[in-house]
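Comment on this:
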Amino acid sequence: MRHDGVRIGLLEDDPIMGESLVRGLSLEGHSVRWWKRGEEAVRDLTSGQDDVDLVICDIRLPDMNGEDVFRQSSRISSTPFLFMSGYAEIDQAVRLMRSGAVDFITKPFEMGALLDRIANNAQAAKAGQGTLGVSPQMCRAETILHRYADHHLPVLIQGETGTGK
């Protein structure tokens, strides 16, 4: 089954797992940008040079952990993160979800399960596109709002007078 192509950023240091995921996701019609180090992903995500719809991020990396990549990039980018790990720790998964991650999957997983999660998260992101406006800034603001909409935490929205907060 082919999905609408999603632009995916894959952060995976294991060459066998990474190659397998790139091949499988590409066969499904997705375009994949593969990072093998956290610093590469942070650089691309925070510079705006790599426009992806979803980041699939391993947690244990050689240079930093996936949580740090998420924290650093989410200061600038509102790209949704789906985390994967072979070391499933419930506390960590809960912490990531509360921080704004869209999903968490435990390795090993079947490709079908990952594809379903990608489709669900891409569909949710596209469902809200354009409701607030079409400018890149408003689309980014809307993505952030959707990320936190299901959380029962207070949110402070700041901005200049007359900007439509």
Strands lie at 7-11, 31-35, 54-58, 81-85, 103-106. The mean pLDDT is 83. Residues 11 and 80 are 13 Å apart (CA to CA).
